[in-house]
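User: quick one - fold this with zinc ion bound?
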Amino acid sequence: MCRNPDQCAAQAQSLANAMQQWAPVGQAELMKWRAAYKAYEGDVVMKHHGYVRCEDREFTPAEIMEAMMNGKVIERFQRRWQRGVVYKTGRPPVEVNLLISYELPIAEGEQAERRNHRQSRSRKRTGSSGRYVHISVVFPPGSMNWTITTVYRPTDKEWRWNNDYTSRQCWC
Ligand SMILES: [Zn+2]
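Assistant: Sure. Structure tokens for the protein plus zinc ion:
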């Protein structure tokens, strides 16, 4: 749970203000990537770490791609690599980091029913499948070759998010 409500509320407000500007930039990048992907001019790979977390958390590769093609950018950061190689310019390269949020539709079948049942306590809205996924991707600015670094269920730490898991409320 949140241990610093005042601090987190202030930080959430500051992030929301910044993302009013930057999330649409990220969304435009995602739209461009989707077009490139469909034209075989772009691709996405998953780091081993991301793949393992994907396995752990019960998202299939098809569901990850569904989220990539239909999800919404909720956070965008552009920063210098912390441990990036410094080239002759003396400046380290820059990477863009997007956080994509998607709610998987209510699935058919017995296995899906079990999943939904197990997650039913996380449901906050009527008609929701309760199966939310967040995907973190990185890429050099302008590149259509992206890397998924993390896939997780925001419902696992739901106090950190608003009702539809599109806005970060807490860092605790
Ligand atoms: Zn907090």
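One thing worth noting: The CA atoms of residues 67 and 102 lie 6 Å apart.
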